Amino acid sequence: MAQSPQHHLVITALGTDRPGIVNTITRHVSRCGCNIDDSRLALLGNEFTFIMLLSGSWNAIGLIESTLPIKGAELELLIIMKRTDVEAHPPRPETTRIEVKVADSPSIIERFTNLMDTHGMNIAELVSRTQPGRPEAAATLYIQMTAHSTDQSQRPEFEQAFQLLCTELHAQGSIRQFSILDGDISAATVP
Fold first, then answer.
1. Residue 188: is its pLDDT beyond 60?
2. DSSP assignment, residue 136?
3. pLDDT tens sequence across 12-70
4. How is residue 153 annotated by DSSP?
5. For residue 17, how far is the Cα from the chain centroid?
6. Is 147 exposed, middle or buried (0-12, 13-18, 19+ CB in 10 A)?
7. Which of 11, 177, 183, 188 has the maximal Cβ count within 10 Å?
8. CA dihedral 62, 41, 174, 189 (to 10 degrees)
9. Handedness of CA 121, 117, 87, 65 (dihedral sign)
């Protein structure tokens, strides 16, 4: 018997953080017959957000679409859902991860996202966190970004531009690059 095609749904849940809420959501997903293929959770102030990519049969996805809004209302959650297709991505031979520690000020994150965009990098993950400073010192911003590129020829120019930006902003930064060549993964760290 042929296996039925998998359908996919992206769900975002947003609400006040409290113990057991993530377990309640994941239990509901499982009881509807869906699988969590990918997920992210973040605490932002007193709120949490949970993003999931679900897969399942047509019936399972339909069941979660019809029942999750009710469950969300019970839990006082804002729920957003969207069906999606999951296709095989082209090979990503170049993956770059940057980490930055800098005094916080407006537009800092945009400066680094613009740098990656200028060098043809597709940002796949961005995590930032601000640590409040003492009264005499500015808050500190920590940034982690992962990006993919198919053009390895831009690597030296990107590394130089990254170092110049870190110098300009008086930031501590590092780059870790991963290349996939013939199925092997190699890594290099740039100070």
1. no
2. T
3. 999 999 999 999 999 999 999 999 999 999 989 899 999 999 999 999 999 999 999 99
4. G
5. 20
6. buried
7. 11
8. -60
9. positive
In this structure, what are the phi and psi dihedrals at residue 169, rounded to the nearest 5 degrees?
-90, 0
The rounded distance, in Å, linking the Cα atoms of 71 and 69 is 5
Q: Which amino acid is at 101?
A: K
Alpha-carbon distance 7 to 150, whole Å? 29
Distance (Å, whole) CA 177 – CA 157: 14
Give Cα separations from 2 to 5, 160, 170 (angstroms): 9, 53, 59
User: Which of these, 105, 106, 112, 140, lies nearest to 126 by C-alpha position?
Assistant: 112
- Cα angle vertex 46, ends 40, 52, to 5°? 20
Q: Would you mind telling me the total number of residues written for the chain in this entry?
A: 191
Write phi, then psi, for 58 (nearest 5 degrees): -55, -45
Task: Please check whether residue 130 is in contact with residue 71, taking contact to mean a CB–CB distance below 8 angstroms.
Answer: no
Please say whether the dihedral angle defined by the alpha carbons of residues 82, 60, 17 and 124, taken in this order, is positive or negative: negative
Cα gap 110→108, rounded to integer Å = 5
